[in-house]
Amino acid sequence: MAEVLVVVEASQAGVKKVTLELLTIARELGEPSAVVLGGPGAAAAMSDKLGEYGAQKIYAAESEEIDGHLVAPKATVLANLVTSVSPAAVLLASSQEGKEIAARLAVKLDNGILTDAVGLDADGTATQVVFAGQTIVKSKVTKGIPLVTIRPNSVTPTPAAASPAVENLTVELTDKDKLAQVVNRVAEQKGSRPELTEASIVVSGGRGVGSGDNFKLVEELADLMGAAVGASRAAVDSGFYPHQFQVGQTGKTVSPQLYVALGISGAIQHRAGMQTSKTIVAVNKDEEAPIFELTDFGVVGDLFKVVPQAVEEIRKRKG
Amino acid sequence: MKIVVLVKQVPDSGAERNLRSDDNTVDRGSANNVINEMDEYAIEEALSIQEKHGGEVVVLTMGPSGATESIRKALSMGPDSAVHVADDALHGSCAVATSKVLAAAIGQLDADLIICGAESTDGRVQVMPHMIAERLGIAALTGARKLTVDGSTLTIERQTEEGYEVVTASTPAVVSVWDTINEPRYPSFKGIMAAKKKPLETKSLADLGVDASEVGFDGATSTVVEHSKRPPRQAGNKVADSGDGGVQLVQYLSSEKFV
Question: Is the pLDDT of residue A191 over 70?
Answer without folding.
Answer: no
